[in-house]
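Below is a filled-in request sheet from our internal design queue. Each sheet records the structural input a requester submitted and the sequence that came back. We keep these sheets so that new team members can see what a complete request looks like end to end.

REQUESTER: design group, bay 2
PRIORITY: normal
MODE: inverse folding
CHAIN LENGTH: 265
BACKBONE (tokenized):
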């Protein structure tokens, strides 16, 4: 079994420390999600290392944003294809879980989970999702220190996004970014698989804790129904709900036709 090391993010939200007057542990726990987990495979001597980074949960209104880095020796990258690693959207949940277990023994894995309330606070501070992803990706890269990194770009201009990430790196590392990178580079597909598996686990926790139903995405009817029911209960939104999302704003305004609005998106 790989060894698990818990490392606090260098880019963790310093404005949420307990000595900050704005920090409220009940509204947005500091250690809720903003941690990295590094799995060390049996083979620890790595020559040329490539790193792939992808995320899951970017557009969700409920649940965390999960960003994953998967690193492997360059000469072992062909083993990913042989293991069946490919675009995670083409795999069933069971296939993703099985592959995620295999990947733990094949390379290094770093997982960052950013809670919904953290995302809201970032946005209030003027940091958008693209900038947030870039910060977390740079954090992963600086920790792993690969020779080459491949990124799934959330920006339609991947070159611009790649340069933005590169500016935050401590070392001279080759950075390649592309849209739909998981279908282009197996090392990114591996990261995508692990990200989706870990986000699914977090959603299961929310189902047990809050009776949540659905996938967490705005256009999902089960998610919308759960949000409506929670709003009707008069309770405050739990920390797993991204209150800065337009979906929640529409509910807060009490406007009708939310479903029609969602389907137009």
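RETURNED SEQUENCE:
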């Amino acid at each position: 079994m790989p060894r698990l090391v818990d490392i606090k993010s260098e880019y963790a939200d310093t404005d949420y420390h307990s000595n900050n007057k704005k920090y409220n542990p009940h509204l947005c726990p500091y250690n809720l999600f903003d941690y990295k987990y590094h799995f060390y495979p049996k083979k620890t001597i790595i020559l040329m290392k490539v790193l792939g980074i992808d995320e899951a949960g970017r557009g969700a209104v409920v649940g965390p944003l999960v960003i994953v880095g998967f690193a492997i020796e360059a000469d072992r990258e062909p083993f990913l294809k042989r293991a069946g690693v490919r675009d995670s959207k083409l795999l069933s949940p069971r296939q993703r879980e099985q592959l995620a277990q295999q990947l733990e023994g094949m390379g290094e894995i770093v997982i960052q989970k950013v809670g919904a309330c953290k995302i809201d606070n970032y946005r209030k501070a003027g940091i958008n999702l693209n900038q947030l992803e870039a910060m977390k990706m740079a954090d992963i890269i600086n920790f792993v220190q690969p020779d080459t990194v491949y990124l799934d770009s959330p920006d339609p201009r991947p070159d611009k996004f790649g340069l933005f990430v590169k500016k935050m790196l401590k070392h001279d590392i080759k950075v390649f970014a592309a849209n739909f990178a998981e279908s282009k580079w197996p090392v990114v597909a591996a990261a995508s698989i692990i990200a989706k598996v870990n986000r699914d686990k977090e959603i299961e926790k929310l189902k047990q804790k809050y009776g949540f139903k659905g996938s967490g995405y705005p256009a999902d009817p089960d998610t919308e129904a759960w949000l409506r029911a929670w709003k009707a209960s008069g309770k405050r939104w739990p920390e797993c709900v991204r209150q800065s999302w337009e979906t929640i704003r529409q509910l807060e305004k009490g406007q009708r036709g939310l479903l029609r609005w969602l389907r137009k998106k």
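SHEET NOTES:
- The CA atoms of residues 130 and 239 lie 21 Å apart.
- The chain is about 40% helix and 15% strand.
FILED BY: M.R.
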